[in-house]
Specification:
The structure holds three protein chains of three kinds. By secondary structure, chain A is an alpha+beta fold. Chain A has helices at residues 2-26, 36-69, 87-115, 152-159, 229-232, 243-262, 267-277, 302-312, 322-331, 358-368, and strands at 125-132, 135-140, 163-164, 167-170, 175-181, 186-190, 195-199, 205-209, 215-221, 236-241, 285-286, 291-292. In chain A, helix 1 (2-26) packs antiparallel against helix 2 and helix 8 (302-312) packs across helix 9 (322-331). Chain B is an all-alpha fold. The chains are: A alpha+beta, B mainly alpha, C mainly alpha.
Amino acid sequence: MKLNRYAIYILVGAIFIAIGVIVGLTVRVFPVAASAEAVAVDSLFNFMLAIAVVIFLIVEGGIIYSIIRFRRRPGDETDGAPIHGNTALEITWTAIPAVIVFVLAIYSYQVYLTIRNPEPKDNEVRIGVIGQQFAWKFVYEMPEDNDPNVTPELRERIKQYMIDSTLYVPLNRPVRALIESQDVIHSFYIPEFRIKQDATPGRVSEAYFTPIEKGEWWVVCAELCGVGHAAMSQINRVVVLEQSEFDQYIAQLYAKAKETASDPRSPEVGKQLIMNKYACGACHILDDAGLVGNIGPSLNGIATRAEGHAERGEGLVGGTDAAAYIRGSIVNPNLYLVPGYAAGIMPQNYGNPNVMSEDDLEAIVNYLLTIR
Amino acid sequence: MTANFAQMQTVFDHEQLQREQALKNARLGLLLWRFANGMAFVFFVFANLLMRNVQPSWPPPGVERLPIALPLAITLVILLSGMTASRTLKAVRANQFGQALRFGTTTLALGAAFFIGLIAAGAQVTPSGPYSSIVWAMQFFHGLHVIAASLLFGIVLLGVWRRRYSAEKHWGVEASVVFWHFVDAMWIVFFLFIYVI
Amino acid sequence: MATTVKPTAIAVPKPRGIAKYLVWSIDHKVIGIQYIGLSFFFFLFGGLLAELIRIELLTPAASLMVDGGAYNTLFTMHGTIMIFLFVVPMLAGFGNYLVPLMLGQKDMAFPWLNAFAFWMLPPAGLIMLAGWLVGPAQAGWTSYFPLSGPQYSPLDGQTLWAISLHLIGASSILGAINFIVTILNMRPPGMSLWQMPLFVWATFATSIIILVATPFLAGGLTLMLLDRLAGTSFFSPATGGDPLLWQNVFWFYSHPAVYIMVLPAMGILSEVLSIHARKPIFGYRFIALSSFGIAFLGCIVWGHHMFTSLASWARIPFMLTTMLIAVPTGVKMFSWLGTLWGGKIRFTSAMLFALGFLSMFVIGGITGVFLASVPVDIHLHDTYFVVAHFHFVLFGGSVFAIFAGLYHWFPKMSGRMLNERLGKIHFVLTYIGFFLTFFPMHFLGLEGMPRRIYTYDPKYEALNALSTIGALIMAVAIVPFLVNLAVSLVAGKPAGNNPWRALTLEWMTSSPPPEHNFDEPPVPAVDPYGYGTPEGAAYLASGGKVALPVSSHAHGHADQPIERPATGD
């Protein structure tokens, strides 16, 4: 009888463990593992899942078994057996979970060491990631340029246009993302890479990943950042390119940046800035630039409306013309509020030249003046 | 007659028992209050340490260290007030109410002097972002407790004046003195973290 | 403090019926029901907000909300209200009602302070709701800076939010002091610490957490208010402050707050399981002590909420302490299973909700270990996996236990039984609705859907729809409960003193108990969980008047050593 009972316990335990192992080996609940780190994290997760399934089955199985086996039969008014405890058993179920969590902690620590790379690597790509309300932008390193006309001062100016709204990364090369925020806390998250790192204003944080799969996915914001938080998860894409395509992209970006630096206030530059640098599309509609945001007022026909505002003297900064109205709406948005829109939703820091340079501001104003 | 007396004795014992129980409860309650209140002071120390941790130096670069003379002086004042507060309790325990009132008013006066000194120490701080913020917040938080302790002590002292307490029954005096000591002790901690460390 | 020692003044005309619950009273039973009633109102209100959230999330595009701000308000208020105005005060209500009764006392140690602590809550609730008048808080219940700072949250609702929480925190600290003094100083003769009901143990551990952690909430809120109103720079990087400071101090309180919401619920569970399985609680001391293990560990794990913002090196120690919490929690789970094993389980509504807790809380516990692991958490942090996890802990755990407690103690509080059939309908609908709402969220999170968004990638639509259906089922589920409450209050079957034939002291007086609780000093059972023992039977038969010492002979399986609770001093 006694032997029998233990035999049953062992048999049930073996079945539970078998189910756990099968689940751990077969179930895939994650999106595609597109980075080397994702592979390590997924194996850790599945290892934990196997153990979790066994524990889950023991507890739920115990509950279901008790409910059936130890239910009160009709007419039975007696009490259960007066068992107050079993010290050996209690020590066992204290010790076994303790051992399990130590194993999990050690394994987790091992995986963590492989997915964080504090030491710079020779072949790594460094990309700046800047969070703002309500989009990401990505800053790329400048390629070498032997052109004697490019003075260090000009290079400094070109640098500020090495920026894009899409994150391009080369395949099979480690990427070090240097993450900052312009306003509130955002969280840089690419589910397919299993990486997430808060963009905390006032400090530069780092994230590391090595893309191993070609593809295109969303760059998500995982930390509540205000009215447009939801929109921010469906604005920026990450695109994994072959090394050659990536080099080509950087060259193009650099050529364009060089061109922009020579005529930084042209309307064409303004359009690029609106689309790629300042995330205006997170909140505004503008057909000409393909912006589809729905948080702030539409920018279609803004030049015509700006003239009206200028005549009425509403929200003007640095002049009395239509340009002054547009400038005012950017650097001091609370000065005049479009009816139906609340104060404080438009970023309040575009008046800071470190956030939006004088050149960029004028380029954007010049561009918007063409939107009739 | 005897039965009646025994009955009275029981009633008396019962009341005595209840009073003792109430006193025991109140003592433990005050101890727990000091613990929780003390955790709030620990909070400010914790915040202070975390704020230092993100600065290259403390005070942050470009910010002057605060002068220590005035804070040191008011620290001595509040220590002294702790001593006079203890003497107040001692006097009440000895049924010497005149003496208790003298020590009590001295304590309150020292408390007021400390409070004025605290405000003056606050005025010595120039606005400098995080550094001045935490210094002011700590001074403000401690100042609130000085006010609370003084109010409590003042009300109790009024009771002493009206002979509400006796050597046997003086929980109010005891509680206000214990709280006064608590506020003293917390200032020493704050003094160390604001001015010394 | 001094005032509480004075004899309490007695109001001249005593309000009766419902009216006595609407005015100042120092009777712990009235106060307990006031807590329960107030928090139940907020439960319904917070639930309404949750339903709006789920209806918005039925489809990927915006449907109900005009903009993200309105949605941000919804989940901010839902979270804040459910935590601070529902679960915490609800469990404090159970504590207030039950602890003095379970200890055979007339009242709490400081009855006046008890009433004072309660009456801080209605103003706190009103201040919280007043947010809607001035522009409500939108920064989430975590209110991270700088989003909650004056620049990005200019509306005054955020300030009211902080003031309201300040009041609730103060109320909670005063309540905790009262509980600890009552438990330590006011046990009846014949009841050692090791003979206290486990609910009392749980309240004791919870009160200690409150004393350690809640002052940090008060401090953090003070700094938040100074930043918002006095222009200091603690948290805003624009003026040299540090946003992580807020996260540290906030989680130093708010993680232990989880145990403030779970430990008393576990205490309720220990009572209900043992009584309705008619079997002694398994491993009494292990359960009692594990509460303290959880309380201690709970205060040193706050960093796991910051695995994506904390310095790299600091993540590892927090991972370890967090994982260790699984150990005392596991002890409780297995001990409850041991309690069921060999019992004679009665499927009352209270027991069904307790079993619901057991079967759902284990999922929340297991997913907690996943989230404790830094590499896994980096992926899952701030996704729907986290939402699923904490709802399995707080709904699958605390709320199920609260319902179990309501079904279990309603007869004591009202003198009437709740209808069992309606109770079972309530349970089945809640159980199905709960599982359907929150289980799919695990997969949404694993897929990478972030929290706190009102429009989402269409690939998440199917699981979201499932979740919304579950939420609607839960909304329906509350109806039988409300009907049950209303009908049973006037027409329920009279309960009698001890309808469950329980051994703890709250059942050794009439239902509802008289104002002074016990007509004569009660005699506690030597073993409060001695079901199935002759001593327990004799104690019940005598109506709680004769407590025999526990004899030394053993029952049960011959191959298992028997451990008994200490017989006390």
